[in-house]
Design goal:
The protein is α/β, with parallel strands linked by helices. 44% of the residues lie in helices and 18% in strands. It has two domains: 238 residues, Carbamate kinase; 156 residues, VC0802-like (2-Layer Sandwich). It has an eight-stranded mixed beta sheet, with helices on both faces. A six-stranded antiparallel beta sheet has the order 10-11-9-12-14-13. It is globular, with a radius of gyration of 24 Å.
Length: 484
């Protein structure tokens, strides 16, 4: 194939939670009622099975240590070694559930066993090497993290290709993990090299979400690396559409919070909205991944794994609705306010530079902020441990007369491709006030795609309910009544 030519295929990504429901993935996404011809002209980039990357690295939310965290913090080989054994056992248990044929199960077990033991030998050798003074373990930890993370994706991708082969589909396992490879590839080269000789019309590529690169994928993109791989595959192969299969629709609010019957599927929006969601940690797609698709003019569809006949939500760059509407009400339930008062800021240029350096050093992410003559307030999202270290560093870096105060808060955001802030902003403020929710800070940026409200932590759920009812449900009900 010509990797840079325009093609008629799609590139699709299956998330970890969906991957764990193997039967639904086969019935609703991979095979279903498709004819033989309809099975092809698709590329699938797969995530690890749900929770597997947490066990290999650390839990994404609770930070419970996985193999990597134990390896990086302990000189005792048994702590991380035992954790790696537990991962291997869990992978074999997954294989036991999904493979009914003994031969397939044996192949899957042997494949992952080889990868696990190869990784273990490498980590033991590295630990032994770093027992000498000339070699420092912390200089190699980024590579260790990538190597461990890759195990989750190669496990799920190999299994999926094996299952498809058993069902008569000509699936091809495309391993981007660089296992035992000597090449120094960047991401583009890694993908182009792996796809050489694959015919989309007769073969179904199953691609690992992790890709080994000279610069390190996780170093730049963190845990969102599989979406970056997905985006780059779509861009390099000139896909007609990129599709992400999730266990839920992209809806007007969290169904668990406001009720399944109350939410609406967005249906259509643009990449500006996707960026705002990423800023709040509610990623439709990783922002770096969205950038690649946006630049190539490739539309992105968010589909529900369990509703295969539903069109889902299409995201494209040239969607600019004429009628204003609030599309999504979401936010961050637990954030922190860091208020810094410094009289020396008044009239000074670059007064915030030192503050931003400290935030960057401790990887504390600002969601929104307010600024006046002598006070800057950052509303940030990070674990409490990081916040404390960051505040301690700020106290040392800033003048003695600077006063730093912190408190727990929540951030609620209303988002839309054409939000109509002139109408919706005062309506939102009035609704929150009528509902007894105190607003600590609010803004409506001029780009007209989002409004943000900082409130007390205990008011988060109530605020989401109030704003969703006032700006989404009531507006939809009035429109339906007018149409009738």
């Amino acid at each position: 194939m010509s990797i840079h030519s325009l093609n008629a295929h799609t590139v699709e990504k299956i998330g970890g939670t969906s991957m764990s429901n193997v039967e639904a993935v086969l019935d609703n996404i991979l095979i279903g009622k498709r004819s033989k011809k309809e099975l092809y002209n698709r590329i699938f980039v797969v995530s690890a099975y749900g929770g597997m990357t947490d066990r290999l690295l650390e839990h994404k939310k609770s930070q419970k240590p996985g193999v990597y965290a134990l390896y990086s913090e302990s000189e005792n080989v048994w702590s991380w070694g035992d954790a790696l054994c537990d991962v291997a056992d869990e992978m074999r248990q997954i294989n036991e559930k999904i493979f009914s044929e003994a031969a397939d199960r044996q192949m899957a077990n042997q494949f992952i066993q080889d990868r696990i033991e190869g990784t273990r030998s490498c980590l033991v050798d590295l630990q032994r090497l770093c027992s000498y003074g000339h070699f420092k373990l912390n200089e190699h930890l980024a590579t260790v993290r990538e190597m461990l993370s890759a195990l989750g994706e190669v496990h799920s991708a190999y299994n999926t290709s094996l299952l498809l082969n058993r069902h008569g589909v000509n699936a091809v396992f495309v391993d981007l993990s660089g296992w035992r490879g000597q090449e120094e590839f960047d991401l583009n080269q890694r993908i182009e090299h792996a796809f050489q000789g694959i015919d989309f019309a007769t073969q179904l590529p199953i691609v690992t979400g992790y890709a080994q690169t000279a610069e390190g994928l996780m170093k730049h993109y963190g845990r969102g690396y599989s979406e970056v791989t997905f985006s780059r595959v779509a861009s390099l192969t000139a896909a007609k559409e990129a599709i992400i299969h999730k266990e839920y629709h992209l809806s007007s609010a969290d169904p668990k919070m406001v009720g399944t019957d109350n939410v609406q599927v967005i249906g259509e929006t643009n990449y500006d909205v996707a960026d705002q969601l990423s800023n709040l940690g509610m990623e439709a797609i990783h922002p770096r991944a969205a950038k690649g698709l946006r630049e190539m003019g490739i539309p992105l569809r968010i589909a529900n794994t369990f509703e295969p006949t539903h069109a889902g939500t299409i995201i494209r760059d040239n969607f600019h609705p004429q009628t204003p509407r609030a599309e999504i009400v979401t936010g961050i339930a637990q954030a922190y306010e860091i208020e810094i008062f410094n009289q020396d800021m008044v009239g000074a240029f670059g007064a915030e530079e030192e503050i931003l350096k400290v935030f960057g050093r401790f990887k504390v992410r600002t969601v929104t902020k307010s600024l006046n003559a002598n006070t800057v307030t950052h509303y940030v999202s990070a674990p409490l441990k990081q916040i404390r270290r960051c505040v301690e560093a700020l106290e040392k870096a800033l003048p003695d007369e600077a006063v730093i105060q912190t408190q727990k808060v929540s951030v609620v955001s209303v988002i839309g491709a054409n939000l109509g802030c002139k109408t919706y902003f005062p309506k939102a403020v009035q609704a929150l006030h009528a509902g007894g929710v105190d607003i600590l800070f609010c803004n409506a940026p001029s780009r007209n795609v989002d409004m943000q409200f900082v409130i007390h932590e205990n008011d988060y759920a109530q605020a989401v309910h109030i704003l969703h009812d006032a700006l989404v449900n009531q507006v939809a009900q009035k429109a339906a009544t007018a149409a009738a």
